Amino acid sequence: GAVVSQHPSWVICKSGTSVKIECRSLDFQATTMFWYRQFPKQSLMLMATSNEGSKATYEQGVEKDKFLINHASLTLSTLTVTSAHPEDSSFYICSARLGGGLDTQYFGPGTRLTVL
Amino acid sequence: QQQVKQSPQSLIVQKGGISIINCAYENTAFDYFPWYQQFPGKGPALLIAIRPDVSEKKEGRFTISFNKSAKQFSLHIMDSQPGDSATYFCAARNKAAGNKLTFGGGTRVLVKP
Question: Does residue A8 have a cis bond before it (omega within 30 degrees)?
């Protein structure tokens, strides 16, 4: 159990376009999902916390208008990178919080974004 | 400010050996300490986790040792196998801060056959 999926697994886009990444919890409901960014050979950097039905909470230094997050249902959160530029190229990973006794985060497989 | 410090950055161990990764934290509000394993191009996978009221937890070949007074915890991988070659991240959760996870810098483990 506790499977989280992401789509797409990789995407290449031109500079200036917008890209949407989906994160789904497949076998549980997640009131909270998190979005991370990871550069090569580095640790995960939390970008924002996404709560179902409310606005996302962004970490300091993360542009809200650049990285739009929507958590419309208990199993789906989306991250839209607007007007993407080459410096936005990165590995984006979501996680979903499984509450209750375990109360831990399960991660998706990640999405590799390359902006040309 | 790095709230969770992880060492070493990289580790080479022979097959059958023990891999040891250490983490230290400062924030006493952390209440849950998971370890994640990540293979290249994949998302992190939960390996094992411990709460601060427990000093040790073992699951198969993986053991967490936790020292609350020293604010340190470590991961031991017994009988290391080539398939264990991956990057390992320790993390610490602050439930009072929205259940955010703070990650260590990661340790790249290479198990030589």
Answer: yes
DSSP annotation of A66 reads: T
Q: What is the pLDDT along chain B (113 residues), one digit of tens a residue?
A: 568 999 999 999 999 999 999 999 999 999 999 999 999 999 999 999 999 999 999 999 999 999 999 999 999 999 999 999 999 999 999 888 888 899 999 999 999 99
Instruction: Return the residue in A26, A94, A102, A105 with the most chain B beta carbons within 10 A, the one to mutate for interface testing.
Output: A105
The A-side interface with B (CB below 8 A) comprises 4, 6, 32, 34, 41-44, 46, 49, 57, 91, 93, 95, 97, 103-110, 112
On chain B, the residues whose CB falls within 8 A of the CB of A11 are none
The two tokens of residue A49 are: 């916390």
